[in-house]
C-alpha cells in the first residue's frame, strides 16, 4: 500500500476556454521559449514543446489586449539572472509587469483608461533592461520603467497611433503606424522624448491612389501584363496627403522592419505584402495573392534568413523565402529576373475549418530558432507547427521553376566533422543555406544536399468549449480509496459532450460525446462512473426529450439509464444520488418524481399523480449500513463455524478466515445488502417532507410545516446534524437537528441557486451560489467566511459551483473558464515550481537564478573529469539535494537528439557555446558567439595560409564558403557587404520612378565607386528640371576627374568648404571621387554620422584604413553617453582585435564569456600565451574559477584555477582546505562590483 503521504493537495488553477475578440493581439513567443497568451482577463503561459499550460496569471480586471516578454539581450549573472518577466496591457489601460514563476506582479502602471495599443521592451543599450515603451490611446507614447512603474517621459502625436516598430539595426529609429500614414522617428532615445514630430509619409492604398496611373518613365521598357500589375505599386509612399477616397482605403494591417536586412520595411495589406527600401522610400518587392487566394491577416519576418511567415484568413501558415538574385543567368528573361525581390512559397500547412465562432487570431514564431510557429484560434485552441527539412529533390512537380534550396554544410557556426552528430532542424539557418546574391559564385554542390521544407503539427492545446457548463467533482478522497483516487472534474457542455479533467495536472482526461443537446446536470455514482442528463428544446406542448445517460469512464461505455422512457415528457429538473450511491431520485417539472435503484437500474417507484410538486430535495447522510453489516458478519461467521465444525481444530482459524473472505467477496458482487436511506424535499408551500427508502419499500415519514420567514425554498443541503435551506429571496435557514433549533439569516443577495457542504469529516463549511456570485459559510459559527460578487471584485458571472477538496472550491463562469480557488476565493496565480506537470518542461528560467547559471556551466564545461555526462550527481557540486534534483529534471527533459549532440566529443567549444546559448534563449550570448565563432575560424584560416606574410591582415583572408548572414549588417566581411550593397543599388535603380529616386541612386553609385553607371543616371535629368545644369556639370566632372595634383587639391578644398558650410553629403561625395574616402569617413564621424561612416569604410576602403575607422567607432560606442559596449565588442570581433575583446569582456565582468572566449582564441591559435597576454589570461581564468566556486562547482573551479598561475594556486588551496571552505569575503566582493562596470 502507498504510504499515507499521497499528494492530493491540488494547486489553485484556471482551466480556460474560448478567447475574447479583444484578446486577438495578446500573444507573444519570448526568447525564454514560452508563449504568453491573453484569455479574457487572464494570461496563459504555454510551453510549446510539450503543449501544456504551465501558469495562468490573474490580476487584470479587463480583457488583456497585449502581452510582451522581456528581451534576453543582456549578459546574465547572479545580479541580472535568467528570469521570466512579462508585461501585459488590458482594455482599461492598465499595464502589469509580472514575475511569471511566482505569479506575482512587479508593478502596475496606469495612465489612461483606454485599451493599450502596443507594448515593447527596449533591448538595445547596456544601461537598463527595465524600460517599456507603450502606446496609450489615442496618441501618446510613454516610456516606463517596468521595474518600478515610474514614468520617464511622454510624447503626443497629431494622429491616432495604431502600433509601432523599432528598427532592429538602429535603436534610434522607429516607425509609428497611424490612422493616416506612417511617422518615422529618427531621434528615439531612452533619456528624453523625441524632439521632432517625426517625418510623416502617407500610404496610399495600393489600388486607390491616382498616383499609380502615371505613365512609366521612358527609361524602363514597356511592361508585360504581369509587370503592369506591379507598376501599380511603384509609388506608394507620398509626402503629400492623398485624396480623400484614398485615405478611407488605408487598410494597412501591419508595419514592421525586416530584421534580416537593414533599412527595409514591410507593409501588410489583405491581398499583398509590400517590401520597401527606406533609403528610397520605394517598393522593391511585392508578394501578391491571386484572385482566388485567401487574404493575409498577419506576417512575421525572420532574421536568420530573408523569409516571411504569413498567416491567412483560413488559418493556413505559409513560409515564403526570398529568391536568390544570383539565379539571374539561368532565368530565360533577364529583364524580369531583376525587377524586384521575389518571395517564393516554400511550404504551407493545413488550413482550419473557419466558422462563425472559430477563426484564426494570431500566429507567433519562435524568435530563437525561427522554425516553429504557433497558431491561436478563437475557440482557445493553440496549434504548434514545426518546420522540417527533408533532403532530396521534390518529385511532385519537377517542372516548377523554383530554384532548389540547399542545406548548409556547417552546424552551429562551424564545418561539420566527419562523424559529428547534428540536429538538422535546430533552427532556420541550419535548415536552409544562405540566399546567394548577384556576383557570387554558387558553392559547388558536391557536399550540399537539396532540401524540401514541410510543416508538421507537433502539438495541440485545446480549451474548454463555449459556456454554459454544468460541473461536478468526483466523490471525495477517503482512507479507503486513497490508492486509486484521481481528482476528476466532470464538466457538461452546451453541445452535449462531457469533459473530464484531472485536476492534479489540469489536463483533459477524457472527452465523451454523451448527449445530443445541452447537458443540464451531472452526478457521480462511483469514482469512475457518473450519470448525466440533458433536455432538448420544448415542442409546442411544452414537452421535451429527456436524456439520462450512465457513463463508465474506464471503458467509455454509455447507456440510457431510463431505457425507452424520455420522449415527449416534461423536462427533468434535477437528479439526486443517495449517499451510499444506491438510489436515484429524478425530479421533473410538472410530473411526480421517480425513484430508481442505481445498482440494478430498476425503477422502484413512480409517485402518484397527487404527489406534491418538488422545489428542492436532498438525501440524508444518515443510514443503517454499519448495523446491517455487523448483523450480516455475525450471521456469516455462524454459518462458517458450522461448516467446519467436523474438521480438525488446528486449521479451523485459517479456514474460517478464508471462508469469511469468500462470503464477503460474494456478497459484494451480488450486493445483497440494501441499507435504509432517507431524503427530504419541500413543496411549493415550503412544507418539508421526509421519506425513507429501504430495498424496494418506500415509506412516508414526518412532515414539518413551513417556516413563516422563508419564501419558496430553492435548495437544501444536509450534513451531519445540520440542515440548511435556501430560498428565492436570499434567506438561509440553518437547522440544528440535535439541539432542535433553527436560525434564519437574510443574505440580501437574491435567489439562492445552489448550496453544497464541503467534503471531509466534521467539515461544516458550506458553499452558496447566487445569481451574482458565491459565498462560503461556516455553519458551526453561522457566519460568512468569504465571498465574490460580479462587478465588485470579479468581472465574470458564476454558472455553477462545487467543492473540489475540503478547502478548495471550483467555479464555472461565463467567460468560459473553470477556476479552482482557495476557500478565500481570491483568484490567485500559483507558483510554477510548486505544481506537478505531466511532462517535464525544459526551461532553465524556472530554476533559482544560481541553479540556472550552474546548469549553464555544467553544459558548457563538458567533459567533467574526462567523461561526457548528463548526470549532475557525477560532478563535485555542493548544493541542497532539492536543487540538484531540479537541475537534473531539467537535464532529463532535453530531447534525446539534443543530449546526444551535447555528449558528442566532436562538438567543439565554440559550437557548444552557441548551442547552449540557443538552448537558454540567451540573445546576447547567441549574438556574441555567432560573430566570435565566425571570425575566430576566419582569422585562424588566414593565419595558417599566411604563415609567411606577417600577421593575419584581411587581404589574405581566404574566400570562406560561409559568410556571416547579412542580418549582422556592418559586421559582415567587406567583400560580401560590398556585393550586397551593389546588388541593392541595382534593384533601387530598376525600381526608381521619380527624379528624387534617380538622384539618390546616382549618389549611392558614386559612393560605391560605380562612376560610369552614375554618369548615365545624371545625364537622364530632363531639361526642364531646375537641377538640369547642375547634374550635367556633375556628370562632366565625374568623367574628367584625373589624378593630377592641382585638380585633386582644388576638389579637396571645395569639399572641405562644403562640409564646413553644412553640405556634408555633397562634400563626402566629392572626396570619394578623388579616392579620399578615408578623409570622408573622418568628416562623417566628426559630424556624428557614425553609421554612415562605417558603411562607407566597408564599401570603399582597404582593410587597414577601414579598420581604423571602425575602431574609432567602437571607441565611440564604449563612451558612457552612448553605452553600447556589447555592440563595440562585436565590431572589434569583426576586425580580429581578439586581445582587446578579451580585455573588454573581463573589465565588464563578463567572467564566463571572457574565460571561454580566451580559451577558444588559444585553441584556434589567434592569441598566444606570452608575457604580455599571460596577465589577462590568468586574471580571466582566475575570476571564472571564483565564479564557478560561488556556484558550488568545485571541480570546475579547480580546473580553471589550475591554469591561472600563482593566484590560481592560492585559490586551489582555499578550495581544498577542509571541506569546501569558501571564504565569504571572496563571494562578497564578487557581488558588489557587478553593477559598476570597471571599464578602461
TrEMBL record:
GO terms for biological process: cilium assembly; neural crest cell migration. The keyword DNA repair does not apply. Keywords: Cell projection, Cytoplasm, Cytoplasmic vesicle, Cytoskeleton, Golgi apparatus, Nucleus, Phosphoprotein, Repeat, WD repeat. One of its GO terms (cellular component) is Golgi apparatus. Residues 486-805 form the WDR11 second beta-propeller domain. It is found in: Cytoplasm, Cytoskeleton, Cilium axoneme; Cytoplasm, Cytoskeleton, Cilium basal body; Cytoplasmic vesicle; Golgi apparatus, trans-Golgi network. Residues 22-318 form the WDR11 first beta-propeller domain. Its main location: cytoplasm. Residues 993-1164 form the WDR11 TPR domain. Gene3D superfamilies: YVTN repeat-like/Quinoprotein amine dehydrogenase (2.130.10.10). The keyword Nucleus applies. SUPFAM superfamilies: Quinoprotein alcohol dehydrogenase-like, WD40 repeat-like. Pfam families: Beta-prop_WDR11_1st, Beta-prop_WDR11_2nd, TPR_WDR11. This is WD repeat-containing protein 11.
Amino acid at each position: 500500500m502507498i504510504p499515507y503521504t499521497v499528494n492530493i493537495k491540488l494547486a489553485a488553477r484556471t482551466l480556460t476556454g474560448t478567447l475574447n475578440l479583444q484578446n486577438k493581439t495578446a500573444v507573444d513567443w519570448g526568447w525564454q521559449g514560452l508563449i504568453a497568451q491573453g484569455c479574457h482577463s487572464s494570461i496563459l503561459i504555454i510551453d510549446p514543446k510539450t503543449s501544456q499550460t504551465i501558469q495562468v496569471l490573474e490580476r487584470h480586471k479587463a480583457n488583456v489586449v497585449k502581452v510582451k516578454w522581456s528581451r534576453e539581450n543582456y549578459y546574465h549573472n547572479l545580479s541580472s539572472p535568467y528570469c521570466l518577466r512579462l508585461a501585459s496591457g488590458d482594455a482599461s489601460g492598465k499595464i502589469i509587469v509580472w514575475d511569471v514563476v511566482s505569479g506575482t506582479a512587479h508593478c502596475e502602471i496606469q495612465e489612461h483608461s483606454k485599451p493599450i495599443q502596443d507594448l515593447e521592451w527596449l533591448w538595445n543599450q547596456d544601461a537598463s533592461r527595465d524600460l517599456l515603451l507603450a502606446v496609450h490611446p489615442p496618441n501618446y507614447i510613454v516610456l516606463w520603467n517596468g521595474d518600478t512603474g515610474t514614468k520617464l517621459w511622454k510624447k503626443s502625436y497629431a494622429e491616432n497611433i495604431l502600433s509601432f516598430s523599432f528598427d532592429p539595426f538602429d535603436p534610434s529609429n522607429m516607425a509609428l503606424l497611424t490612422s493616416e500614414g506612417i511617422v518615422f522617428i529618427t531621434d528615439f532615445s531612452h533619456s528624453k522624448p523625441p524632439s521632432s514630430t517625426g517625418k510623416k509619409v502617407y500610404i496610399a492604398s495600393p489600388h486607390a491612389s491616382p498616383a499609380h496611373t502615371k505613365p512609366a518613365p521612358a527609361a524602363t521598357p514597356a511592361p508585360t501584363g504581369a509587370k503592369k500589375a506591379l507598376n501599380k505599386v511603384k509609388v506608394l509612399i507620398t509626402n503629400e496627403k492623398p485624396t480623400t477616397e484614398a485615405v478611407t482605403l488605408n487598410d494597412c494591417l501591419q508595419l514592421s522592419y525586416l530584421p534580416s536586412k537593414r533599412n527595409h520595411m514591410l507593409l501588410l495589406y489583405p491581398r499583398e505584402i509590400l517590401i520597401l527600401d527606406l533609403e528610397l522610400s520605394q517598393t522593391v518587392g511585392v508578394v501578391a495573392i491571386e484572385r482566388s487566394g485567401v487574404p493575409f491577416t498577419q506576417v512575421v519576418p525572420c532574421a536568420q534568413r530573408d523569409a516571411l511567415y504569413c498567416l491567412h484568413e483560413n488559418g493556413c501558415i505559409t513560409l515564403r523565402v526570398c529568391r536568390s538574385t544570383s539565379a539571374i543567368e539561368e532565368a530565360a528573361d533577364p529583364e524580369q529576373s531583376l525587377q524586384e525581390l521575389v518571395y517564393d512559397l516554400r511550404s504551407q500547412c493545413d488550413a482550419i475549418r473557419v466558422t462563425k465562432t472559430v477563426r484564426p487570431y494570431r500566429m507567433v514564431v519562435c524568435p530563437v530558432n525561427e522554425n516553429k510557429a504557433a497558431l491561436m484560434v478563437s475557440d482557445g485552441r493553440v496549434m504548434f507547427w514545426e518546420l522540417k527539412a527533408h533532403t532530396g529533390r521534390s518529385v511532385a512537380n519537377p517542372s516548377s521553376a523554383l530554384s532548389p534550396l540547399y542545406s548548409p554544410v556547417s552546424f552551429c557556426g562551424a564545418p561539420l566533422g566527419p562523424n559529428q552528430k547534428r540536429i538538422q532542424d535546430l533552427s532556420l539557418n541550419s535548415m536552409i543555406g544562405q540566399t546567394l546574391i548577384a556576383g557570387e559564385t554558387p558553392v559547388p554542390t558536391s557536399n550540399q544536399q537539396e532540401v524540401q521544407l514541410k510543416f508538421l503539427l507537433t502539438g495541440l492545446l485545446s480549451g474548454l468549449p463555449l459556456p454554459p457548463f454544468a460541473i461536478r467533482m468526483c466523490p471525495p478522497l477517503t482512507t479507503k480509496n486513497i490508492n486509486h483516487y484521481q481528482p476528476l472534474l466532470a464538466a457538461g457542455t452546451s453541445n452535449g459532450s462531457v469533459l473530464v479533467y484531472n485536476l492534479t495536472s489540469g489536463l483533459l482526461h477524457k472527452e465523451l460525446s454523451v448527449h445530443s443537446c445541452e447537458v443540464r446536470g451531472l452526478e457521480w455514482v462511483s469514482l469512475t462512473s457518473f450519470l448525466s442528463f440533458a433536455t432538448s428544446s420544448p415542442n409546442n406542448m411544452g414537452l421535451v426529450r429527456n436524456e439520462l445517460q450512465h457513463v463508465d469512464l474506464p471503458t467509455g461505455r454509455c447507456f440510457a439509464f431510463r431505457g425507452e422512457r424520455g420522449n415527449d415528457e416534461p423536462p427533468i429538473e434535477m437528479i439526486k444520488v443517495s449517499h451510499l450511491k444506491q438510489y436515484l431520485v429524478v425530479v421533473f417539472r410538472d410530473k411526480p418524481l421517480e425513484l430508481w435503484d442505481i445498482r440494478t437500474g430498476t425503477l422502484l417507484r413512480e409517485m402518484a399523480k397527487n404527489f406534491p410538486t418538488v422545489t428542492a430535495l436532498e438525501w440524508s447522510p444518515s443510514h443503517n449500513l454499519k448495523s446491517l453489516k455487523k448483523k450480516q458478519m455475525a450471521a456469516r461467521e455462524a454459518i462458517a463455524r458450522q461448516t467446519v465444525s467436523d474438521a480438525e481444530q488446528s486449521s479451523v482459524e485459517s479456514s474460517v478466515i478464508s471462508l469469511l473472505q469468500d462470503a464477503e467477496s460474494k456478497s459484494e458482487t451480488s450486493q445483497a445488502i440494501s441499507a435504509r436511506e432517507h431524503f427530504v424535499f419541500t413543496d411549493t408551500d415550503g412544507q418539508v417532507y421526509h421519506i425513507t427508502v429501504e430495498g424496494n419499500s418506500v415509506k412516508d415519514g414526518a412532515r414539518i410545516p413551513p417556516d413563516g420567514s422563508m419564501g419558496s425554498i430553492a435548495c437544501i443541503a444536509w450534513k451531519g446534524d445540520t440542515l440548511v435551506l435556501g430560498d428565492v429571496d436570499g434567506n438561509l435557514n440553518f437547522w440544528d437537528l440535535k439541539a432542535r433549533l433553527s436560525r434564519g439569516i437574510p443574505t440580501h443577495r437574491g435567489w439562492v441557486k445552489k448550496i453544497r457542504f464541503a467534503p471531509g469529516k466534521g467539515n461544516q463549511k458550506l458553499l452558496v451560489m447566487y445569481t451574482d456570485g458565491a459565498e462560503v459559510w461556516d455553519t458551526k459559527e453561522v457566519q460568512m467566511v468569504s465571498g465574490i460578487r460580479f462587478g465588485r471584485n470579479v468581472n465574470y458571472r458564476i454558472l455553477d459551483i462545487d467543492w473540489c477538496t475540503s478547502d478548495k472550491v471550483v467555479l464555472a463562469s461565463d467567460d468560459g473558464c473553470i477556476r479552482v480557488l482557495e476557500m478565500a476565493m481570491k483568484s490567485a496565480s500559483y507558483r510554477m515550481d510548486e505544481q506537478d506537470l505531466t511532462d517535464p518542461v525544459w526551461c532553465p528560467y524556472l530554476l533559482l537564478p544560481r541553479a540556472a547559471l550552474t546548469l549553464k556551466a555544467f553544459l558548457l564545461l563538458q567533459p567533467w573529469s574526462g567523461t561526457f555526462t548528463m548526470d549532475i550527481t557525477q560532478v563535485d557540486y555542493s548544493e541542497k539535494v532539492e536543487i540538484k534534483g531540479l537541475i537534473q529534471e531539467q537535464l532529463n527533459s532535453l530531447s534525446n537528439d539534443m543530449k546526444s549532440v551535447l555528449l558528442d566529443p566532436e562538438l567543439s567549444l565554440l559550437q557548444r557555446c552557441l548551442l547552449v546559448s540557443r538552448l537558454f534563449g540567451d540573445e546576447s550570448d547567441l549574438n556574441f558567439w555567432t560573430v566570435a565563432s565566425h571570425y575566430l575560424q576566419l582569422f585562424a584560416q588566414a593565419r595558417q595560409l599566411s604563415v609567411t606574410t606577417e600577421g593575419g591582415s584581411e587581404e589574405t583572408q581566404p574566400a570562406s564558403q560561409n559568410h556571416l548572414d547579412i542580418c549582422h549588417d556592418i559586421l559582415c566581411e567587406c567583400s560580401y557587404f560590398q556585393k550586397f550593397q551593389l546588388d541593392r543599388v541595382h534593384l533601387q535603380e530598376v525600381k526608381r520612378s521619380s527624379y528624387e529616386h534617380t538622384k539618390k541612386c546616382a549618389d549611392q553609385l558614386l559612393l560605391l565607386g560605380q562612376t560610369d553607371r552614375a554618369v548615365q543616371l545624371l545625364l537622364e535629368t530632363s531639361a526642364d528640371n531646375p537641377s538640369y545644369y547642375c547634374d550635367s556639370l556633375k556628370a562632366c566632372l565625374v568623367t574628367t576627374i584625373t589624378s593630377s595634383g592641382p585638380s585633386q587639391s582644388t576638389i579637396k578644398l571645395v569639399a572641405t568648404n562644403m562640409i564646413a558650410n553644412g553640405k556634408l553629403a555633397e562634400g563626402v561625395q566629392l572626396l570619394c571621387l578623388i579616392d579620399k574616402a578615408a578623409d570622408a569617413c573622418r568628416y562623417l564621424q566628426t559630424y556624428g554620422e557614425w553609421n554612415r561612416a562605417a558603411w562607407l569604410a566597408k564599401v570603399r576602403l582597404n582593410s587597414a584604413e577601414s579598420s581604423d575607422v571602425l575602431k574609432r567607432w567602437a571607441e565611440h560606442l564604449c563612451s558612457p553617453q552612448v553605452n553600447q559596449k556589447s555592440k563595440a565588442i562585436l565590431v572589434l570581433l569583426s576586425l580580429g582585435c581578439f586581445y582587446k575583446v578579451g580585455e573588454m569582456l573581463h573589465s565588464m565582468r563578463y567572467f564566463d564569456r571572457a574565460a571561454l572566449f580566451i580559451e577558444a582564441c588559444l585553441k584556434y591559435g589567434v592569441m598566444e600565451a606570452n608575457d604580455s597576454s599571460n596577465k589577462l589570461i590568468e586574471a580571466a581564468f582566475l575570476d571564472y574559477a571564483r565564479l564557478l566556486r560561488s556556484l558550488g562547482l568545485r571541480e570546475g573551479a579547480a580546473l580553471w584555477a589550475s591554469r591561472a598561475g600563482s593566484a590560481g594556486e592560492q585559490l586551489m588551496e582555499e578550495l581544498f582546505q577542509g571541506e569546501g571552505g569558501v571564504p565569504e569575503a571572496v563571494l562578497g566582493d564578487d557581488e558588489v562590483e557587478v553593477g559598476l562596470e570597471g571599464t578602461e
